[in-house]
Design brief:
Strand 4, helix 5 and strand 5 (171-174) form a beta-alpha-beta unit. This protein has a 6-stranded mixed β-sheet with strand order 2-1-3-6-4-5. The longest helix has 17 residues, at 102-118. By secondary structure, it is of the alpha/beta class. The two termini are 16 Å apart. It has 7 helices and 6 strands. Helix content is 35%, strand content 14%. It has 2 domains: 2-45 and 97-204, Ribosomal protein L4/L1 (Ribosomal Protein L4, Chain: A), CATH 3.40.1370; 50-90, no CATH class.
Length: 205
């Protein structure tokens, strides 16, 4: 599929042929959902923790005698049945991550790119080069109508562009190896440089 290439100032810079195997698939929500869930689960800290009855700070003395009170038999006040006692089977620190095959992760990235292309939210720019001035880049971004955009550059991000983009709200930039399904789907506009397109095609072939 062909797509027009633009410059940051809005001028035209020819066109580019996008690989149908990467940008022309029919997006599948189930594939995207599985990959996003895998990403978010791996990112979860899993540091949740509650105190069990052996960790709460009450006395372990038997609270009253075993027999003759008319009440139920109890040991110490740390039992889960009492207020401020230990929690029974509460969360403990653990990893929420699970495995997903490389093949499926690649497929998810292809479907994410295709979803953006199909929705008309894919923009190809000639290069991500800037003077390093935030104000100048912010004006160009505003003129282009990008509100929440992700820019994917080649193997390395242009240093001046990254510096200028750092303080612009809603604009993020990643190298090709950092491109992932969650970040792509979260933004309204996906912007890829020509170098980024080539690198993505090489990575996902």
């Amino acid at each position: 599929m062909k797509l027009d290439v633009i410059k940051l100032d809005g001028g035209k810079a020819g066109s580019v042929d996008l690989d149908e195997a990467l940008f022309g698939l029919e997006p599948r929500a189930d594939i995207l959902h599985r990959v996003v869930r895998w990403q978010r689960n791996n990112a979860q800290a899993g540091t949740h923790k509650v105190k069990t009855r052996s960790e709460t700070s009450y006395s372990t003395k038997k609270i009253y005698r075993q027999k003759g009170t008319g009440g139920a038999r109890h040991g110490d006040r740390n039992a889960p049945i009492f207020r401020k006692g230990g929690i029974y089977k509460g969360p403990t620190p653990r990893s929420h991550g699970h495995d997903l095959t490389k093949k499926f992760r690649k497929l998810g990235l292809k479907h994410a790119l295709s979803a953006k292309a199909k929705a008309g939210e894919l923009v190809v720019i000639e290069d991500a080069a800037a003077e390093g001035k935030t104000a100048a880049l912010a004006k160009q971004v505003k003129d282009l109508g990008w509100k929440r955009a992700l820019v994917i550059d080649g193997a390395e991000v242009n240093e001046n562009f990254a510096r200028a983009a750092k303080n612009i709200e809603g604009l993020d930039i990643l190298p090709t190896m950092g491109a992932n399904v969650y970040d792509i789907l979260k933004r309204d506009t996906l912007v890829i440089t020509k170098a980024g397109v080539e690198a993505l095609e090489a990575r996902l072939k």
